[in-house]
Here is the input.
Amino acid sequence: MTERLRAVALASASPRRRELLRALGLDVTIVSSAYDERSHEKWSASPAQLALENAVGKAACAEQAGPPVLLAADTIVDLDGQAFGKPNSSSQAGAMLRGLRGRRHTVHTGYVVMDRRSGRRVAAVQSAQVEFLDIEDAVIDRYVETGEPMDKAGAYGVQGLGALLVSSIAGDFYTVMGLPIARIGLACATLGYELL
Here is the structure.
């Protein structure tokens, strides 16, 4: 028996994730999580595994307020096995973007959907390939000056000005944006909730 999902608790401060869920007609309650992804960075793990571990950690440390269905996610950019999270400074953002330019990289988004009433959960990683244009240093510097790169894995947002840096995407656009919507829908269905 399935139940129509109308509300979720989101263990993320990302306005992009919140808006994507609202676009599905869901009421979204932001819940805080004591998990600090920067202090738990396990750079010896694969970037995909790191994204999943961070999502699981956020879910496990989330406050219990809000609707019973909890969603947590984390996105990591993977350049030849090197994990790029959120930059700590403008100079680090510029260095990340210079590393990505003219090259193909992988974006991994780990996610957890949990029914807090039953304790059941679905946790997985979705990945997509992104290729950057061979952009000039001056373009990178101007982009960093906008401030957009500072709260985004790999120092770019594909849904904003960062789209001007991308030449192609192979895979799910929403994975690159930070929340693989179709996979979230399947996870909800596995737990007995429908979105449509």
The two ends are 14 Å apart (CA to CA). The CA atoms of residues 35 and 58 lie 5 Å apart. The first strand starts at residue 3 and ends at 4.
